[in-house]
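name: query_chain
kind: protein
chains: 1
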Amino acid sequence: MADPKAHPAEVTSVQPDAYPLRHNGYRLLVLTGELRGREIDVLSEAITVGKSRSCDVVLPDDSVSRVHAEIRREGDAYRLRDRGSTNGSYVGGARVTDAYLKPGDVLGVGKVQLRFMPRDARTELLPSEADRFGEVIGKSLAMRKIFGVLERVAPTDVTVMLEGETGTGKDVIARSVHLASPRRDGPYVVVDCGALTAEQLEVELFGSEGPPVPGGTPVPGGTSRGGALELGTGGTVFLDEVGELPRDLQSKLLRVLETNRVRRVGGTAEVEIDIRLLAANHRELKVLVEEGDFREDLYFRLAVVSAVVPPLRDRRDDIPVLIEYFSRRLPPGMWKAPGPEAMARLVGYDWPGNVRELRNVVERSAYLSPDGVIDLVTTGRRVQSGSEAVDFDPTLTFREQKERAVELFEEAYLQWLLQRAEGNISRAAREADMDRKYLHKLLRRYGIDAKLFARR
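structure:
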């Protein structure tokens, strides 16, 4: 029950139907603090949690009150009640005074975090205590859990499958895994499976002994070339958007992974390879398997270890940290930290383009904002049409106003064009009667990623 004296923005009372927890007792896994890693089995009907030695679960932390909270069984459910603690009790990041618990919930007792789970649940890897993994930044629990997995598997040769929305940073994570591995001094080869035709992709992966595929990469001095799987020997090969692989290439890739030997397109000899494979996809690969679009045996070969990278809207506490990180990479004096109102807008925005969109906003604000302040209002303008008023800047000349209007039109048009073409650059260029290379140039100028418009 909510404490009437508590501030409404800080306290949430959760009173739905109880979540059933049909098992013999439960387990508390300590995620942070001095007892990090400790697993506490609980069989009692009711326990107290606090810093006092009289409590059933003792947490020696200054942020924990002497008797901080209690957990009591009610039928098949368990209920957490705060005991008037100084620093509060939390469930899933929300402060509560009274809440029912469900398996997997993260409890906050002061600054100490515990996971509430069945006693027969598998032991999980602890979240990392670091707020970054290589080039990947994140202090949120969701990201630190991924870091905990990556820290364990990076030094090995195990295949890792990264899933998550476009722009969440899967490519940066893959590169960071490579740099944290014993293969860091070897080649790092990236193949974007969604950006090539089936014929081009086959040559890109397996190489060619015959004439080059139309539209493929020219080979100086001849027509033979090694593919990514061959060129990556001794290092890492990252297959981005692996779900776009045609079925026949899926079979061919599976054979390569099982034999560690590759045969070039048009060739007869096999070449032995030694690679560590990483893969990523914006759609859940299991769904593609169920739909019959992806081979189940290849899925199991790729997803030995899998991690789902959360969208930015599900880890909003990372947004200020990322803004600081991206801003520090700009030339000195080109940006100013957002004020409270601007930061509130940035944190409250849903970021459909995820981390990639946030980075673009930070970088563009350095050039478009008059005072260098990062703000969606400055960087997110779009061309308005119809009877809506157009804003003009009295400090600009006619020529400058015109150039600005053209830029706003081009940016809006490019987004509309890619929306129609579902992110396919070749199709967009044809529809606009525009040279493909020039379209690429415009997209780079405005920081627009065609992948954000791909059909999901």
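note: Residues 398-420 form the longest helix (23 residues).
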